[in-house]
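## retry 2 of 3
previous attempt timed out at serialization; input unchanged, resubmitting
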Amino acid sequence: MTESRPVVTRFAPSPTGYLHIGGARTALFNWLYARGRGGKFLLRIEDTDRARSTPEATEAILKGLTWLGLDWDGEPVSQFARKDRHAEVAREMLANGTAYKCFSTPEEIEAFREAARAENRSTLFQSPWRDADPATYPDAPYVIRLKAPRDGQTVVHDAVQGDVTFGNDQLDDMVLLRSDGTPTYMHAVVVDDHDMGVTHIIRGDDHLTNAARQIQIFAAMGWEIPVFAHIPLIHGPDGKKLSKRHGAVGLQEYASMGYPASAMRNYLARLGWSHGDDELFDDAQALEWFDLPGIGKAPARLDFKKLEHVSGHHIAQMQDGPLMQELDAFLAETGAAPLTDIQRSRIESALSVLKAKAKTLPALLEQAHFALIERPVQIEEKAAASLDSVSRGILSELTAALQNDSWNRDELEAAAKQIGESHGLGLGKVAAPLRAALAGRSSTPSVFDMMLALGREEALARLHDQAG
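## retry succeeded, writing output
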């Protein structure tokens, strides 16, 4: 490939279901490679399987990519809509002698294979029509087959796997155009990649054998062959191919579990690719660092603990505005009610505290429970145990003491400490009934952080409700 050509990558999912996390990583790698080089990232929906392709699946793929923050150039290309172009190229290959009409019936092909099995020969079909005289063609349905080289080798120069060699005697004359005039997937992919100007094909290594066949089509048309980079698949924690038994495999499930999109980008980038020992990075670093030599040959393993660690880092580092947008998107994704103005104001006031420990957005909202509830506060059983008569008396004294004091952390802490000492109690013993009164729980953020977030009026009202 000529180095001066602008980089063009593509993501080409089949719209037959949700966006798999492996597909999301493939899309991310393509996006990073193109965007990091000022190139184009294109989207092609491979919807030639009309029985299984659905508009709903296409919509789910677009939604998943949008949530992940991957933008693409231009409109998504429908492979099915280009079937006439695919047929046109197949006929060009007929004309230039790199393809031929094959009139063999399915029964004849099966008979050939049965005989080959019986004689312990290769079952790769060798059509009797490959070099037939057109004058002998019958008036019957036919397919168009690639006239693949019978001798020698086809080498895939792969940017990840290295040179992978296939003996041409192991590759058959594949069908390009079926007897009904519809193209095969293998043929359509090559035509689309050429017409879209794709320079780098970054995809799962389950397509490696396909690359050898597709190279033969590129060569037959005299087209420039893109750079191939076949990335290992993602395995579960047990080292086996990722499946639903390992947990979430659809990208949207991770959105529903409350992992921020920035954390998913960071985590997915590190699944099979590395830049030294760097585990935690932002988009700018990923775009600068990502390159094909950094992709390993071994399958990557999904690790939920590592994902939580990455997620916690991104939540802690996120600016308040974007983090609130992530919260809003999460609530919408899960069908929860949006935040009220009061709830939003309280959470924003406490964000610096809330995001320091939260690994996920639900964990952050769990810590923000005090900001989401209204009076009268429902007291959980464990928290209620801290509200004895002495504690309620302390709440009453504290309520009175804080009526006119400045509403800042130092004043709040000093008042609580002074009243506790007057009862022979440390600050920890005073904090327990405060937690119960403010949040109805025994485990909460700092009581003083909650009071500041709630504001004087609401905080004192909650204390007064439980005072003796």
